[in-house]
Design a protein that fits this description.
Strand content: under 5%
Distance between the termini: 62 Å
Number of strands: 2
Helix content: over 70%
Strand order of the largest sheet: 1-2
Order of helices and strands: HHEEHHHHHH
C-alpha cells in the first residue's frame, strides 16, 4: 500500500508525469502510428539513415588516422576472420554482402537507443525480410550450383523404413531456419529495449521512495542507467553478430 501511495504521489506531480507518459508503456515505442505525418509514411527514413551512416563509415575508414576509422577497420577484420574461419576463402566473394547486412542490423538495433529513435529490428516484418532475403538468396545460389543435388541435403543416412519420414523432418527443420533467424533477433530487441524502459521507470520510483538527496540520487541513477545502456548496446552488437554468424554456418552448409 505504501508503494502504491508513493506511485500515486509521483504520478500527480506534473513535472514528472509528462516524462513518465513516455515510458509507462514499454511496448508503445514500437507503435508505428506516429511515423505517419500528413498521410506520409516516414518509416523508410530510418533505412536511409542507416545507409547514410554505412556510406560515411566506408568513406572515413579509408584513413586509419581517425579513431572512427580505426574502429571500423577492427570491426571489418573481426567479422572477416569469423567468415573465413567458417566459410573458407573460396566463398570470400560473398563477404561484402554479409558485412553490409551486419552493419545494417547493428545500426538498426542501436538507433532504437537514441532519443526519438525507432528500432527497425523490433518489427517482425523487417527481420523476416532480412531472414528470407539472406537465407533465401544463399539457397538459390546453392540450387544454381548443385542442381538436383541440392535436395541431397534433406536425405539423411537412415534405414529405408525411416528414410521418407526423416526427409520430411529435415525439410521442415530447414524451413524453420527462416523463422528462427527472424524471431531470435526480433524477440531479443523487443525484450531488451522494453526492459531498458522498465528499469528506467523503476529506478525513478526507487530513488523517489528512498528519499536520497537529489545530487546523490542523480549520480546513482546516471551510473545505473549508463550501465544498462552499455549492456543493451552490447546485446545489440551480439544479436547482429549471432544473426550473421548463423548465416556463415548456413552458407558453408548450402554452398
Amino acid at each position: 500500500m505504501k508503494i502504491k501511495n508513493e506511485f500515486i504521489n509521483i504520478s500527480n506531480d506534473l513535472t514528472i508525469k509528462s516524462y513518465f507518459s513516455v515510458i509507462f508503456d514499454p511496448i508503445e515505442q514500437y507503435d508505428l502510428s506516429w511515423l505517419y505525418i500528413f498521410g506520409y509514411n516516414f518509416y523508410p527514413i530510418y533505412f536511409h539513415i542507416c545507409l547514410i551512416i554505412i556510406i560515411l563509415m566506408f568513406i572515413v575508414s579509408q584513413s586509419c588516422l581517425t579513431v572512427f576509422g580505426y574502429l571500423n577497420h577492427k570491426l571489418y577484420n573481426f567479422i572477416k576472420e569469423a567468415f573465413l574461419a567458417v566459410c573458407g576463402s573460396e566463398r570470400q566473394i560473398l563477404f561484402p554482402y554479409f558485412f553490409y547486412i551486419f552493419l545494417l542490423l547493428l545500426l538498426s538495433n542501436v538507433l532504437g537507443m537514441l532519443p526519438w529513435g525507432f528500432t527497425l529490428t523490433a518489427q517482425i516484418s523487417i527481420v523476416f525480410f532480412f531472414s528470407i532475403t539472406s537465407l533465401g538468396g544463399i539457397m538459390l545460389l546453392s540450387i544454381e550450383q548443385k542442381g538436383w543435388r541440392f535436395f541431397d541435403l534433406f536425405k539423411p543416412e537412415a534405414p529405408k523404413l525411416l528414410e521418407h519420414f526423416l526427409i520430411i523432418i529435415e525439410f521442415i527443420s530447414f524451413l524453420i531456419r527462416f523463422i528462427s533467424l527472424a524471431v531470435r533477433l526480433f524477440a531479443n530487441m523487443v525484450a531488451g529495449h522494453a526492459l531498458l524502459k522498465i528499469l528506467l521507470l523503476f529506478l525513478l520510483l526507487l530513488l523517489n521512495m528512498v528519499g536520497i538527496t537529489p545530487l546523490i540520487g542523480s549520480l546513482l541513477g546516471f551510473i545505473i542507467i549508463l550501465a544498462v545502456v552499455a549492456l543493451e548496446i552490447l546485446i545489440a552488437f551480439l544479436q547482429a553478430y549471432v544473426f550473421i554468424f548463423l548465416m556463415f554456418v548456413y552458407t558453408k552448409e548450402l554452398l
